[in-house]
């Protein structure tokens, strides 16, 4: 796109007309890369009011901006006739309009000068009066102007500064929902995921984000509302499904209450995109969303733990033990081990988090594997790769139960083997004290025994069976080879 974007109509040029809030506008057709239906959008917390959200345009992140919002029109409900004009400013941006009109070729008699703020020229064509918009000028009012990547020679990045074509690496994230929108946090910054404590103690103050403090593993932990931190409406979660994500920021930790957790994902670096340039407004106002993760065709905002807390809230969290030292913050304890916990009936089990790639919803159907044992459900496709799936109940010789809707496929990997296991639910990510983990009684012979350790949490009465992933995967190599051959 040329540097000198015209702000006046030029005779003989083609223009596209459209409607916004019942009024007619036009834009030079050469600025429009394509026209789309309004895609599903991911909301960006604390973004300009004119930003509708982020959409997925064939694998690229597309910021969609309401043109009515840029023109300071009263908000209105989108309709089926709404469309997005995709502009290429070096990085893509979409302008949402209410209705597409027609292509026009302009003659000298069609032009009339105007003193309008949002249009330098009026166009009268076929009895209609249209205003020419200057997209760059309108966007600059709400968003920081960014140089074109194509003009500056800057390489395009797949996210986190990783250039396309560099070797793949996987980044663990845990997904969760707030106000109906899915977000994620880096797994390395999550200490554990727990049910919401019933005994929250209130703290003095008028900060709506601070819900109180709770005792977790014998330590007092400040609890904050994830919705309030992101400026979202509270209280939209389903009763009984709210979770507490314990987030570590440096040597400090806090609990963030979310509506529910969704899944653990380990996307490749190529599935991570930096925030669109139009939304980066400088170091003094960086957004909480540090990147966008593409998961199963969905866009998920990856939050930055360091940016979730304002300086005032960070000071409050770090000074909770101010006067008498009675409150001790939860930090990353080297004497703990991190596990993904899941359930088979009433039995609580765990696997090391480094061997749990992700947990995903159960697909509607599996592709059958011929001559396979009865506990082999078949093969599912996950991001283009075939994955054998085992019913863990059947693998452990447990009776089947009626589905509850909370079942998940927990994807485990060890020594190059990768298999999905159907479990009744994936409950949390937890750090278990190393001192509480002891060898399990040998009730099976040799390699047939997959539960090799147990975590006995005496204070809470929980007994968690630790599954040896390598032993669990023994005997599945042929299944994995069969799946890869499909």
Brief description of this entry?
This protein is mainly beta and 486 residues long. The chain has 9 helices and 33 strands. It is globular and about 90 Å long.
Distance between the termini: 45 Å
What is the beta-strand fraction? 35-45%
- Overall number of strands: 33
Q: Give me the secondary-structure category.
A: mainly beta
Uncertain segments are: 1-9, 114-120, 146-168, 282-286, 321-332
Shape category: globular
- Count of alpha and pi helical runs: 9
In which range does the helix fraction lie?
Answer: 10-25%
* Overall average pLDDT: 76
Main pleated-sheet profile = 6 strands, mixed
Query: Radius of gyration, rounded?
Result: 27 Å
> Biggest sheet: strands side by side, in what order?
8-1-2-11-10-9
Notable traits:
single chain; 486 residues; mainly beta; six-stranded mixed sheet; 9 helices; 33 strands; disordered N terminus
Walkthrough of the structure:
With 486 residues, the protein is mainly β. Helix content is 10%, strand content 43%. The chain is built from 9 helices and 33 strands. It has a 6-stranded mixed β-sheet, with no helix packed on it. Strands 19-12-13-22-21-20 form a 6-stranded mixed β-sheet. It has a 6-stranded mixed β-sheet with strand order 30-23-24-33-32-31. The longest helix has 8 residues, at 135-142. It is globular and about 90 Å long. The two termini are 45 Å apart.
């Amino acid at each position: 796109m040329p540097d000198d974007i015209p702000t006046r109509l030029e005779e003989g040029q083609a223009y596209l007309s459209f409607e916004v809030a019942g009024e007619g506008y036009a834009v030079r057709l050469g600025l429009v890369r394509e026209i789309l239906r309004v895609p599903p959008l991911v909301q960006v917390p604390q973004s300009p009011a004119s930003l509708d959200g982020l959409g997925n345009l064939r694998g690229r992140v597309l910021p969609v901006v309401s043109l009515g919002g840029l023109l300071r029109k009263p908000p209105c409900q989108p309709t089926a006739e709404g469309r997005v004009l995709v502009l290429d400013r070096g990085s893509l941006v979409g302008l949402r309009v209410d209705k597409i009109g027609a292509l026009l070729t302009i003659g000298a008699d069609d032009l009339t000068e105007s003193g309008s703020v949002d249009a330098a020229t009026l166009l009268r064509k076929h009895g209609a009066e249209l205003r020419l918009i200057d997209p760059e000028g309108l966007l600059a009012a709400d968003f920081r102007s960014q140089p074109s990547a194509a003009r500056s020679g800057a390489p395009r990045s797949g996210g986190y500064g990783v250039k396309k074509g560099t070797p793949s690496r996987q980044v663990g994230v845990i997904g969760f929902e707030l106000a109906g929108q899915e977000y994620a946090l880096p797994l390395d910054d999550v200490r554990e995921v727990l049910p919401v404590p019933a005994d929250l103690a209130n703290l003095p103050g008028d900060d709506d984000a601070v819900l109180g403090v709770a005792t977790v593993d014998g330590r007092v932990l400040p609890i904050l509302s994830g919705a309030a931190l992101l400026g979202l409406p509270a209280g939209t979660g389903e009763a009984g499904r709210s979770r507490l994500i314990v987030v570590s920021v440096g040597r400090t930790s806090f609990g963030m209450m979310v509506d529910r957790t969704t899944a653990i994902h380990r996307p490749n670096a190529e599935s991570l995109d930096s925030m669109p340039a139009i939304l980066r407004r400088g170091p003094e106002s960086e957004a909480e969303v540090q990147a966008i993760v593409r998961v199963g065709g969905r866009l998920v905002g990856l939050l930055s733990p360091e940016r979730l807390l304002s300086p005032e809230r960070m000071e409050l969290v770090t000074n909770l033990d101010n006067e008498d030292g009675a409150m001790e913050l939860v930090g990353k304890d080297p004497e703990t081990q991190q596990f993904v916990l899941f359930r088979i009936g009433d039995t609580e089990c765990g696997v090391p988090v480094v061997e749990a790639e992700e947990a995903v919803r159960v697909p509607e159907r599996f592709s059958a594997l011929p001559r396979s044992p009865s506990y082999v459900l078949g093969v599912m496709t996950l991001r283009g790769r075939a994955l054998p799936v085992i019913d863990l109940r059947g693998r452990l010789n447990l009776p089947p139960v009626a589905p509850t809707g909370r079942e998940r496929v927990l994807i485990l990997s060890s020594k190059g083997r990768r298999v999905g296991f159907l479990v009744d639910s994936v409950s949390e990510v937890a750090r278990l004290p190393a001192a509480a983990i002891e060898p399990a009684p040998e009730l099976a012979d040799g390699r047939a025994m997959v539960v090799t350790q147990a975590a006995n949490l005496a204070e809470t009465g929980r007994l968690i069976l630790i599954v040896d992933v390598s032993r669990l995967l023994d005997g599945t190599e042929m299944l994995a080879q069969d799946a890869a051959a499909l």
